[in-house]
Amino acid sequence: MTAVLHIDAIDDPERAVDALVEALLAGAAVVLPTDTVYGLAALPGDAAATAAVFELKGRSTSTPLAVLCADVRQA
């Protein structure tokens, strides 16, 4: 099932972050708009969610996904 949640991140950034965190913790893959592109994200330790990212992107599992980390400790 796909759910679409429209949140005005400019007027309510805290609500936007809370909604994304909730979706990620629930095992969802999410779309993150940036100033230049849209990104697909999932928690890297959630195999089903990362599989969904590969499927949504139409990407072979032989091409790894990038994992973004806040710092060396998180990596």
Walk me through what this model shows.
- Helices cover 32% and strands 11% of the residues.
- With 75 residues, it is of the alpha+beta class.
- Strands 1-2 form a two-stranded antiparallel sheet.
- It is globular and about 40 Å long.
Summarize the structure.
The protein has 75 residues and is of the alpha+beta class.
List the helices and strands and how they pair.
Elements: H1 13-25, E1 30-33, E2 38-41, H2 47-57
Antiparallel strand pairs: 1-2
Q: Which strands sit side by side, in order, in the main sheet? A: 1-2
How far from one another are the termini?
31 Å
Low-confidence stretches: none
| Structure annotation, total helices | 2
Global morphology: globular
Over the alpha carbons, how many angstroms does the gyration radius reach? 13 Å
How much beta, percentage-wise?
Answer: 5-15%
* Structural class estimated from helices and strands: alpha+beta
The beta-strand count equals: 2
Q: Averaged pLDDT, please?
A: 87
Sequence of secondary-structure elements: HEEH
Helix percent reads: 25-40%
Oligomer: single chain
The largest sheet is: 2 strands, antiparallel
What labels describe this entry?
single chain; about 80 residues; alpha+beta; two-stranded antiparallel ribbon; 2 helices; about 30% helix
